[in-house]
Amino acid sequence: MNRWQNLWRYIPLFGLMLLLSGCGNDTMSALRPRGPVARDQMFLMELSLGIMVLVTIVVFAIYIYVLVRFRKKKGDKDIIPKQVEGSHVLEIIWTVVPIILLLILAVPTVTYTVKLAENHVGNKDAIHVKVTAHQFWWQFEYPELGIATAQDLVIPKGKRIAFEITSSDVLHSFWVPSLAGKQDTNPGMTNILYFEADDAAVFMGKCAELCGASHALMDFKVVSKTEADFTKWVDKMKAPSVVAASDTGAKNGEQIFKDNCLACHAVSPQGLGVGPNLNGFAAREMIAGVKTRGEMNDQNLHEWISNPQSVKPGNKMPAFGPTGGKPLQEQQINDVIKYLNTLK
């Protein structure tokens, strides 16, 4: 009876595991590839899983057969079964079969690994992007296009994107599950990666290496557009940002921004400051890349400016609220928000 009672205790846990197995995000799943690189990696996962399942089935089948075939039956005498030793056939089978299985897995794995490296350097039509990881945000530079942005990686669909990935501080890892496997970002080193997106969509990316207090909040988005829309986005990023003279609040906010924020945050096509480039900031859907608390609206933006540690603990942005190191008055913060809302 105690044994059954112990079993019942685990049923809720099994039910919870079954329930959680249905959770997920279509734009952030390695099991739903949305590009050629992700499909190649999915094939390798399926191949390795298939080999493991095959080996498991064969081993358990032999195990169950032995249990049934050679079990001691009622009335049997205590005898020692015939001992099989030094069988050349068996030795060859359990040596050759694993080698064959390893080759089946190793050959495509090495092939796809070489393919990844060759396609990165061998495609002159690819769009090159330099990715720099920071605590806790992402910087994306397009050297051939003369622009740079943060948090939102914008790409044209169906076009190969070649990445050079590094870190400015600690070890991070660049990961867009729907498009490619993760690639570590190491300070002082540059790693390479490439991927393509099949269609115009938004894919979620994350840091896949524990990097500090807000590692779980180090999200970014890959925005895949049609080639025409991507060209329009590039042109808009290069266009100067102009605040209407009639918008007094935004004009005041622009001056306050220059006095307090411009030392870290650039607002220009190639802006590479200590903090994220805010060119096109108002077009983003999340503040500081935080999906849960950073939806782009005035209230969340006010909280971020006045107390950034409450949104993303451990980040390097100083607080500009009444209790911050560089306090701004309520009206000043509201004017800065008006200015930021013009950066589209």
UniProtKB/TrEMBL annotation:
It comes from Paenibacillus agricola. Subunits I and II form the functional core of the enzyme complex. Electrons originating in cytochrome c are transferred via heme a and Cu(A) to the binuclear center formed by heme a3 and Cu(B). InterPro entries: CcO_II, CcO_II-like_C, Copper_CuA, Cupredoxin, CuRO_CcO_Caa3_II, Cyt_c-like_dom, Cyt_c_oxidase_su2, Cyt_c_oxidase_su2_TM_dom. PANTHER family: CYTOCHROME C OXIDASE SUBUNIT 2 (PTHR22888:SF10), CYTOCHROME C OXIDASE, SUBUNIT II (PTHR22888). It is a multi-pass membrane protein. Belongs to the cytochrome c oxidase subunit 2 family. This is Cytochrome c oxidase subunit 2. Its cofactor is Cu cation.
